[in-house]
Amino acid sequence: MPDSRRWRPSYALDFRRVLAPLRRGPGDPAVHWDAPGRVWLTANTADGPGTLGLRRLADGEFEAVAWGAGAAILLDGVPSLLGASDDDSGFVAHHDVIADARHRRPGLRLPSTGRVWDALVPAVLEQKVTGIEAHRSWRELCRWFGEPAPGPAPAQLRVPPTPTAIRSIPDWKWHQAGVDLKRRTALVAAAGVAHQLERAASLRGAEGRALLRKVPGIGVWTAAEIAQRAWGDPDAVSFGDFHIPSIVGYALVGRALDDQGMAEVLAPYAPQRQRAVRYLEAAGVTRPRFGPRMPIRDYRAL
């Protein structure tokens, strides 16, 4: 029998938008929304793999059902997953566009999975490549090296590869998945110390990100991407991103910015700079459709 619980948030909650950062592209094998409005998530926990099925009932309460060895941990984490541990009380909007986005989206909160490894693998895969490339590699690695999702989850769902599975991948299979040497080296190095890296979710903030960056191949951008999901870090801006400086720049000062310029514009929002970025993203702010685009490469053909 599956484990289950019900939970009612005490705050406005935009269910889909809060969980959106956890989905890595279309066809993500670890996150799936089905027609009735249920989200399915798979995870590696301290107790083992698990599947979480989560849906909002008509009365606003959430029904969570979980399967697998990690079921209890996943159920315990439901409130934080839905933003209960997120505190935006000190946030002040210094720009009209952010103030308007906050007013229009009171249910936007930052999710916290409590799990570093499952956020680390796709973050490393997304380094210096297009989303199309990274999401393809993520799907293939999950399909080839991840376990089937426990319970009656959709057939395509897989649990992300464990550190042991990542260390077992032969070179030719990395190549087949389109993962270059730099990213695979970072993943293998992280897999060797994965247990220690989970402590970053308890340290949180800059200290947690600093721990992640001790792994060769994990820099500021990757640590921020992990922190945003593993502990809902409100200040972890993805410096080094191809798109975000332009989004922030055009939204707040009317022109493209580099990382230094973005840091200066977002400085008044510290220690909640990432929250400001999330409001801009939620408002649908995008960079102008001109200029060079990052090319899509296929490492399997090299």
Give a description of the structure.
This protein is of the alpha+beta class and 302 residues long. It has a domain at 3-92: TATA-Binding Protein, CATH 3.30.310. Helix content is 41%, strand content 10%. It is built from 16 helices and five strands. The protein has a five-stranded antiparallel beta sheet. α12 (205-212) crosses α13. The longest helix is centred in the middle third of the chain and has 15 residues, at 131-145. It is globular. The chain starts with a strand and ends in a 20-residue tail after the last helix. The mean pLDDT is 94.
Which class of secondary structure composition applies to the elements? Answer: alpha+beta
Rounded mean pLDDT score: 94
How much is the radius of gyration in Å? Answer: 19 Å
* Low-pLDDT runs: none
Order of helices and strands: EHEEEEHHHHHHHHHHHHHHH
Short précis:
The protein has 302 residues and is α+β, with helices and mostly antiparallel strands. 41% of the residues lie in helices and 10% in strands. Strands 1-5-4-3-2 form a 5-stranded antiparallel β-sheet.
What is the strand and helix layout of this fold?
Blueprint: E1 3-7, H1 15-19, E2 31-33, E3 39-45, E4 48-56, E5 62-67, H2 71-76, H3 78-81, H4 96-104, H5 117-125, H6 131-145, H7 163-167, H8 171-176, H9 181-192, H10 194-197, H11 200-203, H12 205-212, H13 220-230, H14 244-252, H15 259-266, H16 273-282
Antiparallel strand pairs: 1-5, 2-3, 3-4, 4-5
Helix pairs in contact: 4-16, 5-9, 5-13, 12-13, 14-15
Keywords: DNA damage, DNA repair
Organism: Amycolatopsis albispora
GO molecular function: alkylated DNA binding; DNA-3-methyladenine glycosylase activity; DNA-7-methylguanine glycosylase activity
